[in-house]
Amino acid sequence: MLRRVLWYCNELSRNQWVGPEKLRRLQEKRLREIISHAYNSVPLYKEKFDAQGIKPEDIRSLEDLRKLPFTTKQEVREGIPHRSIARGFDLRNCIRASTSGTSGGPMPVFYDKRFWDYCQAAWIFRKQWAIGVEPWQKVLVIEYSAPPKRGQDRSREPAEERRESRGRESLGPIVRLLRGRRRSVPLFDDANQVLTHMLRFDPKLVRGSPSYLRLLAEAMADRGVDGLANRVVRTEGELTDVETRRYLESSFKCRVFDEYSSWDFGNGAWECTRREGYHIDADMLIMEVVRGGEQASAGERGEIVVTNLLNYAMPLIRYRVGDIGILDDKYCSCGRGLPLLKSIEGRMADCFALPGGQLIAPRTIMTAIQGSPGVSRYQAVQESMSQVRIQLMKRKSEPDAANEELVATCRRILGEDVEIEVSNTERTNFRAKFRPVISKVRVAEEPRMTG
Ligand SMILES: [Zn+2]
Question: Are 20 and 282 in contact (CB under 8 A)?
Answer without folding.
Answer: no
